[in-house]
Amino acid sequence: QVQLVESGGGLVQPGGSLRLSCRASGFFVSRYDMSWYRQAPGKERELVAAITSDGDGGITKYADSVKGRFTISKDNAKNTVYLQMNSLKPEDTAVYYCNADLRRALKSEYVRGVYWGQGTQVTVSS
Question: Which of 9, 11, 37, 92 has the fewest C-beta atoms under 10 angstroms from its C-beta?
Answer without folding.
Answer: 11
